[in-house]
Write the structure tokens for this entry.
Amino acid sequence: MASAKIINKKSLEFLEKYLNNPSPTGYEWEGQKIWMDYLKPYVDEFITDTYGTAVAVINPKAKYKVVIEGHSDEISWYVNYITDNGLLYVIRNGGSDHQIAPSKWVDIHTKNGVIKGIFGWPAIHTRDRAKEEAPTLENIFIDIGAKDKAEVEKMGVHVGCVITYPDQFHILNKDKFVCRALDNRVGGFMIAEVARLLHENKKKLPFGLYVTNSVQEEIGLRGAEMITQTIKPNVAIVTDVCHDTTTPMIDKKKEGEILIGFGPVVSYAPAVQNKLRERIIETAEGKKIPFQRLASSRYTGTDTDAFAYSNGGVASALISLPLRYMHTTVETVHKDDVENVIRLIYETLLTIKEGETFSYFD
């Protein structure tokens, strides 16, 4: 396990299909279907909820429950206002970055199917160089080629339509995965690979494993809040992405020092249960899995917070994947880090015993 490559041809094909499918916050179900279809041979049953969170369960009759979790949604936009001359103004659905929008293609999702559009921007020749105006939520707009508002509406576009970027999966320099929505469908991919490895290696766990792909993380951890009340886990290991801080314009004194290719990131934060975190670190050291450390003030900003503070308190920890250019269409991760996050979750699960409390007082 330590030396073997984890990502094979089939799993890479799944990752590409899963990333290329749009799953914006509030509209995750088509991506969840792809995820569940991939996991079907490796698990015993599925749980889904009203808002679209999907859980693949191994050993569902066990009373002691362990969650491994990622979130499935991606940032997007909503149509907010249609001008008389047929241009669209938008609001965020999640943490969409207004500065990258100009000149990007978009997909507008309607009942009539996808309508293509572009974020327009005034040509450099027409702008006042002495008073250059930066992109803001107030001045970015989408052009769908319509002559007026009536044509926009005839095309099926209306206020509330969700908008995604169509950028597809690529591999950069052989070992860097690049795509929109790596934050955090790569998390869903990694926990799915853990389930696959457990099945293929014929590992029998002494607890129920709940492989959880939550919705609506990007707007406040909402999917995790809901599903943790359904599962009522004893332990939760969450995986999300964190910032590679070695690219330009990032202050390491503020953000810490994290680099893609240097291994999974283990977090220190109030929501992270210390004994569970130390088990993860001991596992990494024992299995010679490289890892990095990150400190978070007050909260992690991930689904870890939702699990930790639910059901009277759930022993929770966070294993993050270093990522460059978060919330852009060229989010970038290192293949080795992806495999090492999978290995670290897998190997940590094999150390957990039925009924462990991770209590400070045992």
Summary: DSSP finds nine helices and 17 strands in the chain. The mean pLDDT is 97.
